[in-house]
Amino acid sequence: MRAIVQDEYGPPHVLSLGEVPIPTPGAGDVLIRVHAAGVDYGVWHVMTGLPLIGRLGFGLRRPRNRVPGMDVAGVVESVGANVTAFRPGDEVYGAATGAYAQFALARPGKLARKPANLSFTEAAATPTSGVTALRAVGQVTAGEKVLVIGAGGGVGSFATQLAVTGGAHVTAVCSTAKADLVRSLGARAVIDYTREPLTGTYDLIIDIAGRRPLALLRGLLTERGRLVIVGGEGGGRWFGGLGRLLAARLITPFTRRRLDARIALTRTADLEALRDLIEAGAVRPAVGRTYSLAEASTAVGDLATGNAPGKLVITVDSGTPGSIPRGEP
Asked: What's the start-to-end Cα distance of the chain, in Å?
């Protein structure tokens, strides 16, 4: 089968299109015929091997999983003997291992049935970003003031919609190029960070951009406001933005303001909650650009620049059901 392969850490050119065998599902696995795969910062971290502490999980000298990609949407091709939640032919979305390929393996606990009103491309844009936003926003109260920093990206576009759905007044922080997108998602005000500083006071700040000092963000909170830091970008080579996440946790016991950090894992229950919201019309993935499988390195490079609006998605031609993809013995 065709797949993106990576044999070393480095910039986007380490990702190349190759041929690998179709993975064989174990007793607890689901084999998915991939239709689309999302592009997220988890792929960038594995590609670069940064921060270096992450290599304890990725692989010390080279990636442990040769085929990258996690967010997936497709059709169940086959299931292991112990899998009862899904069967061949089911349309699913969620998290898989090696999603940048024609076929990928996933655990049932990381999958759910695809929202009926989404295309495969839209569904692939949803799992990591949607679940992370769901956890970050939590329960908002009608009338609360929410600041979403990085509102024009994958997580931010979901967070903006979820906060608006909860009745909050959302101020979105983004670049000039993404202002129209965040307004279309329901943001009442937009701060263009390329032209103006962050101002105002907020009951909840969701910081997805990951580089602003904690002291600055705390100063924008109400007396009992909440700050949620999403992801760990920025920082040095060894620990990246993880030091900032740890600092937030350490400060929280000594202040009335609640500082938290979220790195959400994709689970079936959260995917089902998102599916209900999507099918009800409350939220929808904001797909910015799509790429072919051969353009995966370009997609990850565009993600790293931060210039592309919304969520980036790779579409995959998996062949006709029942056919044997090229490259499989």
From this structure: 9
